[in-house]
# Entry
Amino acid sequence: MTIQGLIGRKVGMTTLYWEDGRVDGVTLVEVGPCVVTQIRTQARDGYEAVQVGFQETRRVNKPAAGHLERSGGRYRHLQEFQVDELSDFEVGQSLGADVFHAGDKVSVRGVSKGRGFAGGVKRYGFKGGPKTHGQSDRHRSVGSIGAGTSPGRVWKGTRMAGHMGARNVTSSGLKIALVDDARNILALTGSVPGPKNGIVRVQLQERNESEAPTPLFTVLPTDAVEDQPTEDETVDEIAVDEEAPADEAPESEAPDEEPEPEAETEVDAPADEAPEEPETEAEAEVDAQADGEISDDDSEAEAEEEPPVDDDTSDDGEKASS
# Structure
């Protein structure tokens, strides 16, 4: 099963270190999972190819939804690639980075970064005008753009200021330094057009039949390295196995010693709390009675004091009348 390329997403850049001391800057491209959405045949379409979809999405129009119904998903990007044998592919089949091998040469096509409206110095690397002899406004000018009388116009294709970037660009001859099948990531030596998360088309140019060297250090460890336990993990496992019988013995003895103090505390606690409640209620009743007696004494004292006041007022009233 050989397909000539896949759709990918530019992840970013990193560095690979080799055993001979070389250091390569590589671009990480996530290729897949790509799902086969349609198979082009010579009898029906006039050519043989396989259409694949990349990046699932929720929103597609009805014609696209009907076209992708057989594949079992909805995909944002669709492209076609040539294959060696159509019989090796079927609709709904998933493809990943395992179709490439380390050492293969590929071409990557993508949309370059948009720079907006740029001048001739930035867009084409023009030198600019002189900064002396009165040229105060010619520092970044493009200079002459043609003769006056003949031809009397500007030739098409003259390099001038204009929109820069946001064009389809292809980088050819990029070598695959590393293939991570688990993450569907390719490490390509060199630069890839487009920004991060940009969609690119990875096309196979030359297949490498020999075994490619493995980098000494990389930020993408293989599954074999991840699955192998380290020395610290093996030492910890041995220590746990040796200490397991010692841990089980105290657990069997612990229930015989611990329940006794717990039972005592549970029984003693209610015994201490039970007599406190009646004592507090009796004290409350005694206090309430004492308060009632004091209030009765106060009321009687006030009642005894009030009559003399009334007698005085009555005497004063009699004197006034006489």
